[in-house]
Prior knowledge:
The chain is 21% helix and 34% strand. It is of the alpha+beta class. Strands 2-3-1-4 form a 4-stranded antiparallel sheet, covered by helices on one side.
Amino acid sequence: xxxxxxxxxxxxxxxxxRALGLIERRGYSLNSCTIxxxxxxxxxxxxxxxxxxPADLLKRQLERLxxxxxxxxxxxxxxxPQKSGIRSINxxxxxxx
Length: 97
């Protein structure tokens, strides 16, 4: 199962490496990682992981790291692209008969 988490990290040396190391050691497979520096005082990181283990467990473990200020678990459907509002003309006809 895929899980996505947003993390706010300190800008200290090794903070990203410690967070990624914990993810790997706990048995979560890293799919993607995006890091940005929004305000210069810290780092914002978004990770997508794959595991049969619950995402809440990983969230609690990451929150224990000294360099991690905040961890948010993104709901499963929030990252999927939205479908356009266009539907087939014939899709509503079956309801009329």
